[in-house]
What we know:
Layout: H1 3-11, H2 15-66, E1 79-83, E2 89-92, H3 104-111, E3 116-120, E4 131-140, E5 143-152, H4 154-204, H5 221-270, H6 275-305, E6 314-317, H7 318-335, E7 340-344, E8 348-351, H8 353-370, E9 375-382, E10 385-391, H9 424-434, E11 438-443, E12 448-455
Amino acid sequence: xxxxxxxxxxxxxxxxxxxxxxxxxxxxxxxxxxxxxxxxxxxxxxxxxxxxxxxxxxxxxxxxxxxxxxxxxxxxxxxxxxxxxxxxxxxxxxxxxxxxxxxxxxxxxxxxxxxxxxxxxxxxxxxxxxxxxxxxxxxxxxxxxxxxxxxxxxxxxxxxxxxxxxxxxxxxxxxxxxxxxxxxxxxxxxxxxxxxxxxxxxxxxxxxxxxxxxxxxxxxxxxxxxxxxxxxxxxxxxxxxxxxxxxxxxxxxxxxxxxxxxxxxxxxxxxxxxxxxxxxxxxxxxxxxxxxxxxxxxxxxxxxxxxxxxxxxxxxxxxxxxxxxxxxxxxxxxxxxxxxxxxxxxxxxxxxxxxxxxxxxxxxxxxxxxxxxxxxxxxxxxxxxxxxxxxxxxxxxxxxxxxxxxxxxxxxxxxxxxxxxxxxxxxxxxxxxxxxxxxxxxxxxxxxxxxxxxxx
Length: 456
């Protein structure tokens, strides 16, 4: 089978099945290795004992052949055979009679002085007359004799077969037990994951305020995953709520100027109008169009600023940035009889002037539009932080408005009849977030203050 195809099929299996397969394969390798080691040690010990018995018997036969004495009896079931150099049987056990135990090649090897040892019969399948023989050349009365000693392997083979059966049985039981334990452990470990999946599916089906049931007394990987998912659900629910509120507020803000434009046009078309009346109608429509343009540009700027990829920091003199931001509002302050006070340190900061300048402008516009008295702007950089603060001497923000002062389309006046779109401070907050800083609004006791704190 193609290895890639096998891996692909394994990846399609459930996680529990893959874990059980991994445990089973690993345990099979371990048990096979352990069984092989035990079998080798026992076989080595039995073979050593059998070889010692065979060597002892061989020595007694060699001594008897040299002394031309009767061949001594060996271990139970042992066999012996004495041959001349041509392979003729001179003496042999009754069970062998004239049947040679050695092959022609083995006779030649022993005749040249080699010692031959080999097994007759196999462990599996079971065969009769299993032997281990050893043949050596012996000099007797100036003649060369080949002495063959053989002992039966029946007890040794039976012990090894019994050992194999016991090892196979124990390994099978161990593998089944390990697989079962692995299955139960994997199911227990993944049960919370399945519970989390079911909870997430419920949320996906539209169930509100769904949260995962995470044990508070645990602190393992699965529990931390549950806390992370709950935090993600909180963020998603908050984002969905902000989206619903944004759509509702944007619809309201767009509906007002469009309704006014429609009303002006209906009145103009209802009956003939003089040139002066038509010009007045067009001016009113133009005002609402300008309001729509400003609102659309503000929304587009907020969406563009929401991506940090649009922030390009570069060194710039803080005094120049502040001067550029303040310039459009000097005449506005003069027309309303307000004082605009500016205090900026002459230092270089690392910021995106494209967004920072209109951010400062929105802070000033908010103070001039909704505050009273002197508007003060202070800008200073210290220890890598840029702090911009705009204060006024007005009544300040309503207490209930402060927590949502930087939300989109929020205004201190609930009727929404005042000037402005409710996006100015939202833009200030977006500038702060894009630069990795913060925006803060508060009441000072003598008016309101909006502060922008950025790393520079």
